[in-house]
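Data availability (excerpt). The following record was deposited with the supplementary files.
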Amino acid sequence: MSPQIALHDPVFRAYFWTVLLSLAIAGAVLGYLRFVLKKETASMFKTYWSWILIAGIGFIVVFLGRIPNNRRHHVARDLRFQGIRERIGFVS
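Predicted structure:
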């Protein structure tokens, strides 16, 4: 499956929006704690930024990881058809 197809995959999009909204809500809560309630949130913001980095890397890996999975499927399909051709005598 290509990245273009992954963008239209409902499962990929659902995970993307779930993670994006969760990170946005967490950022809003941390901002509220820091700027409205004047709480010390420096260590929480460091953790928050690390989760943004982890989520970004995770989505890139999942998005691009769909390509090799598709190629492996085509190799298996080609080997299966090669076996059929050999059985019926169409060996080139």
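Summary of structural features: The chain has three helices and no strands.
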